[in-house]
Amino acid sequence: MRFARRRTDSREPPLVFAGSASPALTAAICRELGIAPARGETMHFSEGTLFVRALENVRGRNVYVVQSTSYPTNHNLVELLFWIDALKRASAASVTAVVPYFGYGKGDRKDEPRVSIRARVCADAIEAAGVDRVVTMDLHAPQIQGFFRVPVDDLFALPYLVDAVRREGLVSPVVVAPDAGAAKRARRFARSLGAPIAIADKERAEHDERAEVLELVGDVEGRDAVIVDDIVFTGGTLVDVARILGERGAGRIVAAVTHGVFSGGQDRLDACPIAAIYSAGTIEARPDPPPAKARTISVAPLFAEAIRRIDQRESVSSLFEE
Ligand code: R5P
Protein backbone atom coordinates (compact mmCIF):
# COMPACT_ATOMS: atom_id res chain seq x y z
CA MET A 1 0.00 0.00 0.00
CA ARG A 2 1.57 3.30 -1.10
CA PHE A 3 0.23 6.81 -0.66
CA ALA A 4 1.30 9.96 -2.46
CA ARG A 5 2.90 12.46 -0.12
CA ARG A 6 0.48 15.34 0.17
CA ARG A 7 -0.24 18.15 2.52
CA THR A 8 -3.57 18.14 4.27
CA ASP A 9 -6.09 20.53 2.73
CA SER A 10 -7.26 22.16 5.93
CA ARG A 11 -5.94 25.65 6.63
CA GLU A 12 -4.53 24.37 9.88
CA PRO A 13 -2.52 21.18 9.43
CA PRO A 14 -2.53 18.58 12.20
CA LEU A 15 -0.11 19.06 15.06
CA VAL A 16 1.88 15.86 15.57
CA PHE A 17 3.90 15.54 18.78
CA ALA A 18 6.55 12.88 19.35
CA GLY A 19 6.61 11.00 22.63
CA SER A 20 10.07 9.84 23.68
CA ALA A 21 9.37 6.26 22.53
CA SER A 22 8.70 7.22 18.90
CA PRO A 23 10.77 10.18 17.65
CA ALA A 24 11.98 8.52 14.43
CA LEU A 25 8.54 7.28 13.43
CA THR A 26 7.03 10.69 14.22
CA ALA A 27 9.65 12.41 12.06
CA ALA A 28 8.91 9.99 9.20
CA ILE A 29 5.14 10.48 9.57
CA CYS A 30 5.60 14.26 9.51
CA ARG A 31 7.79 14.03 6.39
CA GLU A 32 4.96 12.13 4.70
CA LEU A 33 2.49 14.83 5.76
CA GLY A 34 4.80 17.64 4.67
CA ILE A 35 4.85 19.20 8.15
CA ALA A 36 7.41 19.58 10.92
CA PRO A 37 6.84 17.69 14.18
CA ALA A 38 5.15 19.88 16.78
CA ARG A 39 7.51 21.26 19.40
CA GLY A 40 7.39 19.78 22.87
CA GLU A 41 9.71 18.73 25.64
CA THR A 42 9.99 15.87 28.11
CA MET A 43 12.08 16.13 31.25
CA HIS A 44 13.15 13.30 33.53
CA PHE A 45 13.76 14.06 37.17
CA SER A 46 16.18 12.41 39.57
CA GLU A 47 13.44 10.81 41.67
CA GLY A 48 12.10 8.94 38.63
CA THR A 49 9.20 11.22 37.68
CA LEU A 50 8.76 13.01 34.37
CA PHE A 51 7.27 16.17 32.96
CA VAL A 52 5.98 17.02 29.49
CA ARG A 53 5.15 20.38 27.95
CA ALA A 54 3.87 21.47 24.54
CA LEU A 55 6.00 24.34 23.27
CA GLU A 56 3.41 25.66 20.86
CA ASN A 57 -0.20 26.77 20.97
CA VAL A 58 -2.65 23.87 20.52
CA ARG A 59 -5.89 25.71 21.33
CA GLY A 60 -8.69 24.54 19.07
CA ARG A 61 -6.35 22.29 17.05
CA ASN A 62 -6.55 18.59 16.21
CA VAL A 63 -3.52 17.17 17.95
CA TYR A 64 -1.79 13.79 17.59
CA VAL A 65 0.78 12.34 19.93
CA VAL A 66 2.82 9.38 18.71
CA GLN A 67 4.05 7.10 21.47
CA SER A 68 4.57 3.33 21.49
CA THR A 69 4.13 1.91 24.97
CA SER A 70 7.33 -0.06 24.47
CA TYR A 71 10.58 -0.31 26.47
CA PRO A 72 10.74 1.23 29.03
CA THR A 73 7.06 0.35 28.96
CA ASN A 74 5.76 1.74 32.25
CA HIS A 75 7.66 4.95 31.76
CA ASN A 76 6.41 5.44 28.21
CA LEU A 77 2.85 4.62 29.18
CA VAL A 78 2.87 7.27 31.90
CA GLU A 79 4.47 9.77 29.53
CA LEU A 80 1.65 9.14 27.04
CA LEU A 81 -0.93 9.83 29.76
CA PHE A 82 0.78 13.10 30.66
CA TRP A 83 0.91 14.16 27.01
CA ILE A 84 -2.81 13.55 26.57
CA ASP A 85 -3.60 15.44 29.76
CA ALA A 86 -1.29 18.35 28.90
CA LEU A 87 -2.79 18.73 25.42
CA LYS A 88 -6.37 18.55 26.67
CA ARG A 89 -5.69 21.11 29.38
CA ALA A 90 -4.11 23.35 26.74
CA SER A 91 -7.53 23.32 24.96
CA ALA A 92 -6.75 21.12 21.97
CA ALA A 93 -9.96 20.47 20.00
CA SER A 94 -9.15 16.76 19.92
CA VAL A 95 -6.29 14.54 21.03
CA THR A 96 -5.54 11.34 19.14
CA ALA A 97 -3.07 8.92 20.70
CA VAL A 98 -1.11 7.18 17.95
CA VAL A 99 0.21 4.11 19.74
CA PRO A 100 2.09 2.09 17.10
CA TYR A 101 2.83 -0.68 19.63
CA PHE A 102 0.33 -1.16 22.45
CA GLY A 103 2.30 -2.70 25.33
CA TYR A 104 0.52 -5.01 27.80
CA GLY A 105 -1.62 -6.25 24.87
CA LYS A 106 -1.03 -9.83 25.99
CA GLY A 107 -2.76 -9.06 29.29
CA ASP A 108 -6.16 -9.10 27.60
CA ARG A 109 -8.05 -11.61 29.78
CA LYS A 110 -8.38 -13.09 33.21
CA ASP A 111 -7.36 -16.65 32.45
CA GLU A 112 -6.20 -17.55 35.96
CA PRO A 113 -7.29 -16.46 39.43
CA ARG A 114 -6.25 -13.19 41.03
CA VAL A 115 -4.61 -11.57 37.99
CA SER A 116 -5.14 -8.16 36.41
CA ILE A 117 -6.50 -7.62 32.90
CA ARG A 118 -3.60 -5.29 32.22
CA ALA A 119 -4.57 -4.20 28.71
CA ARG A 120 -7.93 -3.07 30.06
CA VAL A 121 -6.27 -1.04 32.83
CA CYS A 122 -4.01 0.66 30.24
CA ALA A 123 -7.02 1.43 28.04
CA ASP A 124 -8.91 2.87 31.02
CA ALA A 125 -5.94 5.04 31.95
CA ILE A 126 -5.51 6.38 28.40
CA GLU A 127 -9.21 7.16 28.25
CA ALA A 128 -9.26 8.75 31.71
CA ALA A 129 -6.43 11.04 30.62
CA GLY A 130 -8.86 12.45 28.05
CA VAL A 131 -8.02 10.88 24.69
CA ASP A 132 -10.56 11.32 21.89
CA ARG A 133 -9.34 8.59 19.57
CA VAL A 134 -6.63 5.91 19.38
CA VAL A 135 -4.73 4.77 16.30
CA THR A 136 -2.65 1.65 16.75
CA MET A 137 -1.28 -1.30 14.80
CA ASP A 138 -1.81 -5.06 15.00
CA LEU A 139 -3.13 -5.28 18.54
CA HIS A 140 -2.24 -8.63 20.09
CA ALA A 141 -5.99 -9.31 20.22
CA PRO A 142 -8.33 -7.16 18.09
CA GLN A 143 -10.91 -7.30 20.92
CA ILE A 144 -8.72 -4.87 22.87
CA GLN A 145 -10.45 -2.19 20.77
CA GLY A 146 -13.51 -2.92 22.89
CA PHE A 147 -11.64 -1.98 26.07
CA PHE A 148 -11.96 1.63 24.87
CA ARG A 149 -15.20 3.56 24.46
CA VAL A 150 -13.52 6.07 22.13
CA PRO A 151 -12.90 5.01 18.49
CA VAL A 152 -9.84 2.81 17.85
CA ASP A 153 -8.25 2.30 14.43
CA ASP A 154 -6.17 -0.89 14.50
CA LEU A 155 -4.04 -0.64 11.33
CA PHE A 156 -2.50 -3.68 9.62
CA ALA A 157 1.23 -3.89 8.88
CA LEU A 158 0.52 -6.89 6.68
CA PRO A 159 0.75 -5.27 3.20
CA TYR A 160 4.17 -3.80 4.06
CA LEU A 161 5.47 -7.11 5.44
CA VAL A 162 4.07 -9.06 2.47
CA ASP A 163 5.89 -6.68 0.07
CA ALA A 164 9.15 -7.23 1.93
CA VAL A 165 8.75 -11.01 1.91
CA ARG A 166 7.88 -11.00 -1.81
CA ARG A 167 11.24 -9.37 -2.52
CA GLU A 168 12.90 -12.43 -0.91
CA GLY A 169 11.91 -14.48 -3.99
CA LEU A 170 10.98 -17.51 -1.89
CA VAL A 171 10.43 -20.87 -3.60
CA SER A 172 6.98 -22.49 -3.06
CA PRO A 173 6.54 -20.55 0.18
CA VAL A 174 4.41 -21.77 3.05
CA VAL A 175 3.22 -19.34 5.74
CA VAL A 176 3.64 -20.68 9.26
CA ALA A 177 1.60 -19.61 12.31
CA PRO A 178 3.59 -20.23 15.52
CA ASP A 179 0.40 -21.09 17.45
CA ALA A 180 -3.34 -21.36 16.97
CA GLY A 181 -3.79 -17.73 18.06
CA ALA A 182 -1.67 -16.57 15.12
CA ALA A 183 -3.57 -18.66 12.56
CA LYS A 184 -5.95 -15.91 11.42
CA ARG A 185 -3.09 -13.47 10.81
CA ALA A 186 -1.12 -16.19 9.00
CA ARG A 187 -4.11 -17.06 6.82
CA ARG A 188 -4.47 -13.42 5.72
CA PHE A 189 -0.74 -13.27 5.03
CA ALA A 190 -0.91 -16.51 3.05
CA ARG A 191 -3.83 -15.24 1.00
CA SER A 192 -1.87 -12.10 0.06
CA LEU A 193 1.22 -14.14 -0.78
CA GLY A 194 -0.74 -16.87 -2.60
CA ALA A 195 0.70 -19.56 -0.34
CA PRO A 196 -0.63 -22.41 1.84
CA ILE A 197 -0.35 -22.30 5.63
CA ALA A 198 1.00 -24.55 8.36
CA ILE A 199 0.26 -24.18 12.08
CA ALA A 200 2.57 -25.00 14.98
CA ASP A 201 1.27 -26.20 18.33
CA LYS A 202 3.09 -24.09 20.91
CA GLU A 203 2.93 -24.50 24.65
CA ARG A 204 4.06 -21.94 27.20
CA ALA A 205 3.84 -23.64 30.56
CA GLU A 206 4.85 -20.76 32.82
CA HIS A 207 5.19 -16.98 32.76
CA ASP A 208 8.94 -17.36 32.28
CA GLU A 209 8.74 -16.62 28.52
CA ARG A 210 9.93 -20.14 27.53
CA ALA A 211 7.82 -21.56 24.73
CA GLU A 212 7.98 -25.05 23.29
CA VAL A 213 6.69 -26.05 19.88
CA LEU A 214 5.30 -29.57 20.16
CA GLU A 215 3.92 -30.27 16.69
CA LEU A 216 3.55 -28.75 13.23
CA VAL A 217 0.42 -29.28 11.16
CA GLY A 218 0.89 -28.80 7.39
CA ASP A 219 3.30 -29.70 4.62
CA VAL A 220 6.57 -27.73 4.67
CA GLU A 221 9.01 -30.20 3.12
CA GLY A 222 10.97 -28.69 0.24
CA ARG A 223 9.25 -25.33 0.66
CA ASP A 224 10.64 -22.01 1.82
CA ALA A 225 8.83 -20.82 4.93
CA VAL A 226 7.60 -17.48 6.33
CA ILE A 227 6.88 -17.45 10.06
CA VAL A 228 4.21 -14.80 10.73
CA ASP A 229 3.56 -13.40 14.21
CA ASP A 230 2.48 -10.17 15.87
CA ILE A 231 5.31 -9.79 18.39
CA VAL A 232 8.80 -11.10 19.01
CA PHE A 233 9.95 -10.68 22.61
CA THR A 234 12.74 -13.11 23.54
CA GLY A 235 12.69 -14.92 20.21
CA GLY A 236 11.96 -18.27 21.88
CA THR A 237 8.91 -18.81 19.69
CA LEU A 238 10.66 -17.99 16.40
CA VAL A 239 13.70 -20.11 17.27
CA ASP A 240 11.61 -23.13 18.19
CA VAL A 241 9.38 -22.87 15.12
CA ALA A 242 12.53 -22.59 12.96
CA ARG A 243 13.89 -25.74 14.63
CA ILE A 244 10.82 -27.81 13.78
CA LEU A 245 10.72 -26.36 10.24
CA GLY A 246 14.31 -27.53 9.76
CA GLU A 247 13.44 -30.99 11.10
CA ARG A 248 10.53 -31.20 8.64
CA GLY A 249 12.68 -30.33 5.62
CA ALA A 250 11.78 -26.67 4.98
CA GLY A 251 14.20 -24.63 2.82
CA ARG A 252 14.96 -20.94 3.42
CA ILE A 253 13.17 -19.54 6.47
CA VAL A 254 12.26 -15.88 7.05
CA ALA A 255 10.03 -14.25 9.68
CA ALA A 256 7.55 -11.38 9.36
CA VAL A 257 6.60 -9.99 12.76
CA THR A 258 4.83 -6.66 13.23
CA HIS A 259 6.43 -5.60 16.51
CA GLY A 260 10.16 -6.30 16.82
CA VAL A 261 10.37 -5.86 20.58
CA PHE A 262 13.56 -8.00 20.80
CA SER A 263 13.69 -7.89 24.59
CA GLY A 264 16.33 -10.63 24.72
CA GLY A 265 17.63 -13.69 22.93
CA GLN A 266 19.51 -11.72 20.25
CA ASP A 267 22.33 -14.28 20.13
CA ARG A 268 20.09 -17.29 19.72
CA LEU A 269 18.05 -15.47 17.06
CA ASP A 270 21.23 -14.68 15.14
CA ALA A 271 22.40 -18.30 15.50
CA CYS A 272 19.09 -19.91 14.41
CA PRO A 273 18.32 -20.88 10.81
CA ILE A 274 16.03 -17.87 10.16
CA ALA A 275 17.65 -15.79 7.40
CA ALA A 276 15.87 -12.47 8.05
CA ILE A 277 13.32 -11.10 10.51
CA TYR A 278 11.16 -8.31 9.10
CA SER A 279 9.32 -6.00 11.47
CA ALA A 280 7.38 -2.76 11.14
CA GLY A 281 9.47 -0.13 12.90
CA THR A 282 7.02 0.38 15.75
CA ILE A 283 9.73 -0.09 18.41
CA GLU A 284 12.69 2.30 18.66
CA ALA A 285 14.37 1.49 22.00
CA ARG A 286 15.40 -1.78 23.60
CA PRO A 287 17.72 -2.87 26.42
CA ASP A 288 20.10 -4.29 23.76
CA PRO A 289 20.44 -3.78 20.00
CA PRO A 290 18.23 -5.99 17.80
CA PRO A 291 19.70 -9.11 16.18
CA ALA A 292 21.85 -8.51 13.10
CA LYS A 293 19.29 -10.28 10.91
CA ALA A 294 16.47 -7.88 11.91
CA ARG A 295 15.15 -5.76 9.01
CA THR A 296 12.89 -2.76 9.65
CA ILE A 297 10.12 -1.82 7.22
CA SER A 298 8.73 1.70 7.56
CA VAL A 299 4.99 1.94 8.13
CA ALA A 300 5.12 5.75 8.42
CA PRO A 301 3.12 6.23 5.18
CA LEU A 302 0.24 4.24 6.64
CA PHE A 303 0.17 6.18 9.92
CA ALA A 304 0.50 9.45 8.01
CA GLU A 305 -2.42 8.56 5.78
CA ALA A 306 -4.52 7.58 8.80
CA ILE A 307 -3.76 10.94 10.44
CA ARG A 308 -4.49 12.83 7.23
CA ARG A 309 -7.85 11.11 6.81
CA ILE A 310 -8.88 11.54 10.44
CA ASP A 311 -7.90 15.17 10.22
CA GLN A 312 -9.89 15.68 7.03
CA ARG A 313 -12.83 13.67 8.42
CA GLU A 314 -12.43 11.13 5.62
CA SER A 315 -13.09 7.42 5.96
CA VAL A 316 -10.17 5.35 7.20
CA SER A 317 -11.85 2.03 6.48
CA SER A 318 -10.06 1.47 3.15
CA LEU A 319 -6.79 1.43 5.11
CA PHE A 320 -7.89 -1.91 6.53
CA GLU A 321 -8.05 -3.62 3.13
CA GLU A 322 -5.56 -6.43 2.71
C1 R5P B 1 2.18 -15.01 21.60
O1 R5P B 1 0.99 -15.04 21.89
C2 R5P B 1 2.76 -13.94 20.74
O2 R5P B 1 2.02 -13.81 19.57
C3 R5P B 1 4.21 -14.22 20.40
O3 R5P B 1 4.31 -15.46 19.73
C4 R5P B 1 5.07 -14.29 21.62
O4 R5P B 1 4.73 -13.30 22.55
C5 R5P B 1 6.54 -14.16 21.27
O5 R5P B 1 7.30 -14.19 22.46
P1 R5P B 1 8.79 -14.75 22.44
O6 R5P B 1 9.52 -14.04 21.34
O7 R5P B 1 9.31 -14.42 23.82
O8 R5P B 1 8.71 -16.23 22.24
Folded structure, characterized:
The protein has 322 residues and is α/β, with parallel strands linked by helices. The protein has helices at 23-33, 73-89, 118-128, 158-166, 183-193, 236-247, 266-271, 300-311, and strands at 15-18, 40-44, 50-54, 62-66, 94-99, 133-137, 152-155, 174-177, 197-203, 212-217, 225-232, 253-260, 274-279, 294-296. The strands form 3 sheets. A 7-stranded mixed sheet has the order 10-9-8-11-12-13-14, sandwiched between helices. Strands 1-4-5-6-7 form a 5-stranded parallel sheet, sandwiched between helices. The chain has a two-stranded antiparallel sheet with strand order 2-3. Helix 3 links the parallel strand 5 and strand 6 (133-137). The model has no long low-confidence stretch (mean pLDDT 94). The structure holds ribose-5-phosphate. Ribose-5-phosphate binds at residues 178, 181-182, 209, 211, 229-237.
Helix and strand element order? EHEEEHEHEEHEHEEEHEHEEH
The strands making up the biggest β-sheet line up spatially as: 10-9-8-11-12-13-14
**How large, in whole angstroms, is the Cα Rg?**
20 Å
Strand share of the residues? 15-25%
User: Helical content, roughly?
Assistant: 25-40%
Dominant shape: globular
Keywords:
322 residues, alpha/beta, seven-stranded mixed beta sheet, five-stranded parallel beta sheet, 8 helices, 14 strands, 24% strand, binds ribose-5-phosphate
Structural topology:
Blueprint: E1 15-18, H1 23-33, E2 40-44, E3 50-54, E4 62-66, H2 73-89, E5 94-99, H3 118-128, E6 133-137, E7 152-155, H4 158-166, E8 174-177, H5 183-193, E9 197-203, E10 212-217, E11 225-232, H6 236-247, E12 253-260, H7 266-271, E13 274-279, E14 294-296, H8 300-311
Parallel strand pairs: 1-4, 4-5, 5-6, 6-7, 8-9, 8-11, 11-12, 12-13, 13-14
Antiparallel strand pairs: 2-3, 9-10
Helix pairs in contact: 1-8, 4-5
The chain binds ribose-5-phosphate.
